[in-house]
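Module 6 notes. Inverse folding takes a fixed backbone as the condition and produces residue identities as the prediction. Think of it as a translation problem where the source language is geometry and the target language is the twenty amino acids. Below is one complete input and output pair. Work through it position by position during the lab.
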């Protein structure tokens, strides 16, 4: 299947990510090397999600899914500390609302972990409905305990509700680096494959299998709101507070 033309975000002049389309599948590819989260990257992701939602609604698609991926050895290496924390309230007002937007997105979402997913990258992956992971390179890890850094309530809630208790403990108190095989055994990911291209193809396969569920329209997002009320509430608890 041939991909349609790409739409880049935020602009051609500053290319952080792109959306391509293959039939019912929308593929978000982050292209900023380690894909660290900055105010600009988070806005680009949110704008791209809005673009996909607008297309799905305008075309009244009955099959649709979103897959996110990085390039080479990184899915995302987490926050760009210098740029992120130069903006007051970045975590509460920008990063966690972005996670919430992914968590409750109105069509199926699949994170294709082509490489490392550390800290914020791990959180972004866990906000998706499904995850596939490259088996021969890359780890999932929350390394805040080693920085050291606190883990805000919204981030903690996302991990706690998406992980089994003993896995959550190892993740946040030990900064365990989960290989693909360990992530699969711990139910952090749904499937694994070798190499970047193999993982991307697996991600597409998973996405296309679940895409028909989008026919439920607004109910898909509504059901997710009922699945994750506690996570969403905590992710957004300070989003509208004045700085």
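Target side of the pair, the amino acids:
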């Amino acid at each position: 299947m041939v991909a349609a033309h790409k739409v880049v975000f935020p602009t051609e002049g500053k290319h952080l990510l792109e959306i391509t389309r293959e039939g019912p599948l929308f593929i978000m590819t982050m292209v900023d090397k380690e894909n660290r989260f900055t105010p600009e990257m988070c806005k680009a992701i949110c704008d791209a999600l809005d673009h996909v939602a607008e297309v799905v609604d305008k075309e009244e698609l009955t099959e649709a899914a979103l897959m996110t991926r990085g390039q080479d050895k990184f899915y995302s290496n987490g926050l760009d500390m210098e740029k992120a924390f130069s903006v007051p309230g970045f975590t509460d007002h920008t990063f966690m609302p972005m996670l919430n937007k992914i968590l409750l997105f109105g069509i199926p979402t699949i994170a294709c972990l082509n490489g490392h997913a550390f800290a914020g990258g791990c959180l972004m992956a866990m906000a998706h409905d499904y995850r596939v992971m490259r088996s021969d390179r890359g780890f999932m890890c929350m390394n805040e305990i080693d920085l050291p850094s606190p883990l805000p309530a919204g981030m903690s809630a996302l991990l706690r509700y998406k992980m089994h208790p003993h896995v959550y403990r190892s993740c946040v108190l030990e900064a365990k680096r989960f290989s693909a095989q360990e992530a699969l055994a711990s139910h952090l990911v749904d499937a694994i494959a070798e190499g970047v291209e193999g993982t991307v193809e697996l991600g597409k396969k998973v996405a296309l299998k679940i895409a028909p569920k989008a026919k439920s329209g607004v109910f898909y997002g509504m059901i997710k709101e009922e699945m994750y009320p506690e996570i969403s509430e905590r992710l957004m608890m300070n989003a509208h507070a004045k700085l």
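Reference fact for the lab report: The chain is about 45% helix and 20% strand.
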